[in-house]
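Repro:
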Amino acid sequence: MEGGALGAAKSPSGGVSVTGSYVLVISLDRERAIEVGALGEIDFPAGAYAYVGSAMGGLDARIARHLRDDRRLHWHVDYLLQHAEVVDVLRVESEERMECAIAAALADRLACVAGFGASDCTCESHLFGPATVSTMTTEVRDAAAAADHAGNKRPALTEEDTEPQS
Protein backbone atom coordinates (compact mmCIF):
# COMPACT_ATOMS: atom_id res chain seq x y z
CA MET A 1 0.00 0.00 0.00
CA GLU A 2 1.24 3.48 -0.74
CA GLY A 3 0.10 6.81 0.59
CA GLY A 4 -0.97 5.80 4.09
CA ALA A 5 -3.44 8.22 5.63
CA LEU A 6 -1.92 8.15 9.09
CA GLY A 7 1.83 8.24 9.04
CA ALA A 8 5.06 6.63 7.98
CA ALA A 9 6.95 3.45 8.50
CA LYS A 10 10.04 5.16 7.09
CA SER A 11 12.07 7.45 9.31
CA PRO A 12 11.74 11.17 8.69
CA SER A 13 14.88 11.50 10.80
CA GLY A 14 17.21 10.38 8.02
CA GLY A 15 18.29 7.15 9.69
CA VAL A 16 18.77 8.52 13.21
CA SER A 17 17.13 6.20 15.73
CA VAL A 18 14.01 7.84 17.13
CA THR A 19 11.85 6.73 20.04
CA GLY A 20 8.14 6.87 20.52
CA SER A 21 4.88 5.04 20.15
CA TYR A 22 2.93 3.81 17.17
CA VAL A 23 -0.48 2.55 16.14
CA LEU A 24 -0.88 -0.19 13.55
CA VAL A 25 -4.19 -0.24 11.69
CA ILE A 26 -4.73 -3.90 10.92
CA SER A 27 -7.28 -5.42 8.55
CA LEU A 28 -8.67 -8.88 9.16
CA ASP A 29 -10.54 -10.07 6.04
CA ARG A 30 -12.79 -12.61 7.75
CA GLU A 31 -13.80 -13.80 11.19
CA ARG A 32 -11.15 -16.03 12.74
CA ALA A 33 -10.44 -17.86 15.97
CA ILE A 34 -6.75 -17.19 16.67
CA GLU A 35 -4.55 -18.70 19.37
CA VAL A 36 -2.81 -15.70 21.00
CA GLY A 37 -0.03 -17.02 23.23
CA ALA A 38 -0.91 -17.03 26.93
CA LEU A 39 -4.27 -15.33 26.21
CA GLY A 40 -5.49 -18.49 24.51
CA GLU A 41 -7.94 -18.64 21.63
CA ILE A 42 -9.69 -15.38 20.77
CA ASP A 43 -12.54 -14.97 18.29
CA PHE A 44 -11.85 -11.96 16.07
CA PRO A 45 -14.70 -10.64 13.90
CA ALA A 46 -13.66 -9.37 10.46
CA GLY A 47 -12.76 -5.69 10.28
CA ALA A 48 -10.09 -3.17 11.13
CA TYR A 49 -8.24 -3.13 14.45
CA ALA A 50 -5.86 -0.64 16.02
CA TYR A 51 -2.86 -1.96 17.94
CA VAL A 52 -0.94 0.52 20.13
CA GLY A 53 2.71 -0.09 20.98
CA SER A 54 5.88 1.71 21.93
CA ALA A 55 9.48 1.50 20.83
CA MET A 56 11.70 3.39 23.19
CA GLY A 57 14.71 1.59 21.73
CA GLY A 58 13.99 2.38 18.08
CA LEU A 59 10.67 3.27 16.49
CA ASP A 60 11.65 2.50 12.90
CA ALA A 61 13.03 -0.95 13.69
CA ARG A 62 9.94 -1.92 15.70
CA ILE A 63 7.53 -0.83 12.98
CA ALA A 64 9.62 -2.58 10.31
CA ARG A 65 9.53 -5.77 12.39
CA HIS A 66 5.72 -5.68 12.48
CA LEU A 67 5.62 -5.23 8.70
CA ARG A 68 7.83 -8.25 7.97
CA ASP A 69 6.38 -11.67 7.24
CA ASP A 70 9.28 -13.52 8.85
CA ARG A 71 8.86 -12.36 12.46
CA ARG A 72 9.00 -14.81 15.34
CA LEU A 73 5.98 -14.93 17.64
CA HIS A 74 6.84 -12.73 20.62
CA TRP A 75 4.11 -10.14 21.24
CA HIS A 76 0.36 -10.74 21.19
CA VAL A 77 0.07 -8.74 17.96
CA ASP A 78 2.43 -11.17 16.18
CA TYR A 79 -0.23 -13.89 16.46
CA LEU A 80 -2.88 -11.62 14.93
CA LEU A 81 -0.54 -10.49 12.15
CA GLN A 82 -0.15 -14.09 10.97
CA HIS A 83 -3.75 -13.79 9.73
CA ALA A 84 -4.15 -10.07 9.05
CA GLU A 85 -2.50 -7.20 7.18
CA VAL A 86 -1.18 -3.85 8.40
CA VAL A 87 -2.93 -1.27 6.23
CA ASP A 88 -1.66 1.89 7.92
CA VAL A 89 0.76 3.11 10.58
CA LEU A 90 0.70 6.15 12.84
CA ARG A 91 4.10 7.15 14.27
CA VAL A 92 4.22 9.27 17.43
CA GLU A 93 7.79 10.41 17.91
CA SER A 94 8.42 11.24 21.55
CA GLU A 95 10.94 10.70 24.30
CA GLU A 96 7.94 9.93 26.53
CA ARG A 97 6.10 6.60 26.35
CA MET A 98 2.69 7.59 24.92
CA GLU A 99 1.19 4.15 24.22
CA CYS A 100 -0.97 3.95 27.36
CA ALA A 101 -2.32 7.48 26.86
CA ILE A 102 -3.23 6.63 23.26
CA ALA A 103 -4.76 3.31 24.38
CA ALA A 104 -6.84 5.13 27.02
CA ALA A 105 -8.10 7.58 24.40
CA LEU A 106 -9.01 4.70 22.06
CA ALA A 107 -10.76 2.90 24.93
CA ASP A 108 -13.09 5.90 25.21
CA ARG A 109 -14.04 5.46 21.54
CA LEU A 110 -13.90 1.76 20.63
CA ALA A 111 -14.41 -1.75 21.92
CA CYS A 112 -11.26 -3.56 22.97
CA VAL A 113 -9.90 -7.09 23.13
CA ALA A 114 -9.34 -7.55 26.89
CA GLY A 115 -5.74 -8.11 27.95
CA PHE A 116 -4.33 -7.93 24.43
CA GLY A 117 -0.93 -6.26 24.34
CA ALA A 118 -1.26 -4.98 27.89
CA SER A 119 0.64 -7.56 29.93
CA ASP A 120 3.26 -5.00 30.99
CA CYS A 121 0.91 -2.18 32.06
CA THR A 122 -2.41 -1.53 33.79
CA CYS A 123 -4.39 -0.80 30.60
CA GLU A 124 -7.34 -3.02 29.80
CA SER A 125 -6.01 -3.53 26.28
CA HIS A 126 -3.81 -2.20 23.52
CA LEU A 127 -5.98 -3.67 20.72
CA PHE A 128 -9.21 -1.98 19.67
CA GLY A 129 -11.91 -2.82 17.16
CA PRO A 130 -13.33 -4.02 14.97
CA ALA A 131 -14.49 -1.11 12.82
CA THR A 132 -14.20 -0.12 9.19
CA VAL A 133 -10.75 0.97 8.03
CA SER A 134 -11.94 4.55 7.50
CA THR A 135 -13.56 4.72 10.94
CA MET A 136 -10.47 3.21 12.55
CA THR A 137 -8.17 5.69 10.80
CA THR A 138 -10.25 8.61 12.08
CA GLU A 139 -10.47 7.22 15.62
CA VAL A 140 -6.72 6.58 15.76
CA ARG A 141 -5.89 10.12 14.63
CA ASP A 142 -8.37 11.59 17.15
CA ALA A 143 -7.07 9.39 19.98
CA ALA A 144 -3.45 10.37 19.30
CA ALA A 145 -4.42 14.04 19.32
CA ALA A 146 -6.37 13.57 22.58
CA ALA A 147 -3.42 11.77 24.19
CA ASP A 148 -1.12 14.57 23.04
CA HIS A 149 -3.43 17.22 24.52
CA ALA A 150 -4.00 15.34 27.78
CA GLY A 151 -0.28 14.86 28.32
CA ASN A 152 0.59 18.47 27.48
CA LYS A 153 3.21 17.07 25.12
CA ARG A 154 3.73 17.79 21.46
CA PRO A 155 4.85 14.48 19.93
CA ALA A 156 5.49 14.61 16.23
CA LEU A 157 2.69 12.91 14.31
CA THR A 158 4.55 12.26 11.08
CA GLU A 159 2.76 12.39 7.75
CA GLU A 160 4.99 10.49 5.32
CA ASP A 161 3.78 7.61 3.18
CA THR A 162 3.77 4.10 4.54
CA GLU A 163 4.45 1.03 2.46
CA PRO A 164 3.66 -2.10 4.53
CA GLN A 165 4.95 -5.40 3.24
CA SER A 166 2.34 -8.13 3.03
